[in-house]
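#struct-pred
JK: can someone run the complex with 1-O-phosphono-alpha-D-glucopyranose? inputs below
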Amino acid sequence: MTDFPPIRKAVFPVAGLGTRFLPATKSIPKEMLPIVDKPLIQYAVEEAVEAGVDTIIFVTSHKKGAILDHFDPDAELESLLLAKGNDELRKRIHNIIPDHVSTRYVIQEKALGLGHAVWCAKNLVGDEPFAVLLADDLIRSKGSGCLKQMVDEYHATGAGSLGVEEVPSSMTDRYGIVSVEKDATERNYIRQIVEKPSPENAPSNLGVVGRYILPGEIFALLESVQAGVGGEIQLTDAISRQLDSKPLLAHAFEGERYDCGSRHGFIRATVDYALEHEDLRDDMLAYFDTLRDLRN
Ligand code: G1P
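RT: done, structure tokens with the ligand placed:
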């Protein structure tokens, strides 16, 4: 079996404005909005660390200091909690990022699109294959996390991949949409990718979710990509060109995705994650019983 270079670096584009959550996101980055008691960005970082990533690269804007603060150790708060005898709480903020993992920040000066955000990480990534995670897409898996599943497939094939799932045909214009072709091993290789096509023009209903393993060559392609859908530099357009020289897989992950960029998805995630907390579950279920009458 061939050894492929490990996926050590993960890029987190976090410079977006989060307008769908205004006014909450006027001063709080949308990635810092909590699902139960953990900010969205922490779920995504934990997923990357589980997949073996040891360098976290945040592509951020000047306004996103809260994200930096969140991942910085806070010895003062830790000793305060310890002095109060609350070691349980102290543990929750200790080593949010494990010691072997480092964080880097790069500023995206202008909001020119996802492709541009990823390109901003060029010098920090170099030419090795790397991951991109969009924290808006929260993925709850029973076994390995979505990125770990993709990394395992990368080690088996040497090919990068995009996380995909079926989306309602009427909603293709919200996603990158791929068409695929199976190889002899039953793996789905991407034939075509289009950013936010109308339902009539969509090549399928397989939507890209915010998980990518991409080769370092993508940066050179991003450099020459023109503004696309919405006047933005689209990652999808560079990926489309990448397909000419390197195959990429469509990874239909095991797990449930919540679109936490929408209020509906965010609230559903909050409910489902709350039900997983033992100390909340019974109260929540009892509360749902009281809501049943609302239907009538
Ligand atoms: C971005 C990508 C799109 C992808 C989506 C997943 O779109 O451009 O291809 O399907 O993330 O969440 P955005 O949601 O930022 O408009």
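RT: quick notes.
The chain has two domains: 9-261, 262-296.
Residues 114, 134, 136-137, 175-176, 195, 207-210, 234-236, 261 surround 1-O-phosphono-alpha-D-glucopyranose (CB under 6 Å).
JK: thanks, will look after standup
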